[in-house]
Fold this protein.
Amino acid sequence: MVMKQVFGRPETLCDGATHYCGGCGHGVAHRLVAEALDHFGLHDKAVGVAPAGCSVMLYDYFDVDTIESAHGRALAVATGMKRANPSLFVFTYQGDGDLASIGMCETIHTANRGEKITVVFINNAVYGMTGGQMAPTTLPGQKTTTTPLGRSTATEGAPIKMAELMAGFDGVAYSERVAVYDARHVLRARKAIYRAFESQIHQAGMGFVEVLSPCVTNLKMSPEKAQAWVAEEMCAAFPLGLFKDTLSQYEKENAPAVEGSDAHAS
Amino acid sequence: MSPSNHGAAARPGTRKLVQGNIALAEGAVRAGLNCYFGYPITPQNQIPEYLSWRLPETGGVFLQAESELASINMVLGAAATGARVMTSSSGPGISLMQEGISFLAGSQIPCLIVDVMRCGPGLGGIKPTQADYYQATRGGGHGDYRTIVLAPFSAQEMFDFPMRAFDLAEHYRNPVLILSDAILGQLKEPAVLEPAGIPRPLPNTWALTGAHNRPARNLRSMYLSGDDQEIHNNVLWEKYNRIEQELPEAEQIETDDADILIVAFGSAARIALSAIRLAREEGLRVGLFRPVTLYPYPGKALRELTSRVNRVLVVEMNMGQMLDDVRLAVTDEVRIHFYGRPGGGVPTPHDILAKIKEC
């Protein structure tokens, strides 16, 4: 009987255990990014920019060149890399505190310049690594270690909807919000990440994917309950969907002449 | 008065009247600059304005960033690919960059940072100062680290130092800072805008260029496992020790017969030279010790010189910052006088002459 392998570890995802908590969404998101790196054959020219936050140690998990960035500055670092060497494939992987709070200025200006960079944004509604403080994406009423009575929109504002915000910039070719709480949504997330990769590969503009992801430890929930919380509470506050896709139009107009489009073949 | 080698007169080639900031920008281009990232601030704006058209001519990248925070982190990203990269700013902007400079030092990524000093603290003003000496020479940001600091004092050195800076930055894998000021940036004087050599970037064994036919690389400053952070810091420390052995440089002018020594760098050293000329006309034997590297400080040479000349006048356009390094360098037998002008005050040669007479 001929055995065919139908599922395995992506080549650009390193073997071994991660430091992530059981039930955390980072593991799935890492896998999806690695699948995209494999699919487009980017091992030899990818550079990953790690943020400050739980995913700072992504350089231990991806078998591609990686760099650490200061809190919030990943997109400035990525801009420098891409401008200095446009043949590199540059992606950032950032959390909500990094991208939407301390790094908001870099985020919107990088988007506005239309840097050919792929951004994977993990929104888990809380500061994970520092122990569960309020994030810019914390839900109204959500209790955190710095909003013990629950986030008040009157005094702390409402959660920032990044995928919609990014869609407003001409320089962004693709912006979608996805979630990783069940298999169907994981598959959709994979497709969105592929499209964000293609935004850069085709030189169409910034590709942005917001991934709603459970933080079991700081939600103080079991993995099952945390996934349900993402599905019910987070998705209510952050509607899933595609908010910007000038990439498709760009592909129609430019596809035959685009350099590097043969990457699809790999 | 023998001319100092800062003058264009000593150099072969065509002399041109040039502004200090422009000399520096062109010097960087001739040094093989690949990318510039910066944000406007007086008194250094001529550097980005010039590079905005000049750098693309050479195939380089010019990008005006949204802030100095972004500038320095763009520098980090671009330099991490092995490119020759610089930024320039002045006090308030350099302060914003300190976190990034700490990351550059911790990750051992070479680059050039130019501080055209304006007076502070706070927003301060746009007049010249030397008040960023501590910030430049003591690290400036968080953590144990040093940046190599070069102090030009002429348009010629503004042109020449970027080449040295890039060579040193790559040799030691460390950020290099050129500490200039509003006088040096804005003055116009003759300089030879022809480099003494050609750019020689080192073969790169660490840059992030894609893991093609080699294992994946990583640049970082954080080491969480066991004693790894201490081990990493000891690697940096060993490098700083080598820098302190190999790099200190100072210029000595009219020191052979001197009874009194002025210690000054940058603009203050130029004014001191005029004061020394006045003093010599009155029969006072005064010499100049001008540190060219501020980190590493040329303390050993100063200590040797002051074993002969034990009256020292330190002149700075601040409240006395390099003064600390002079005190650390010399023995207790040396009498140290200080003349400082903070807040944009610029001493005249006659002001300094009066202080010489008090020594």
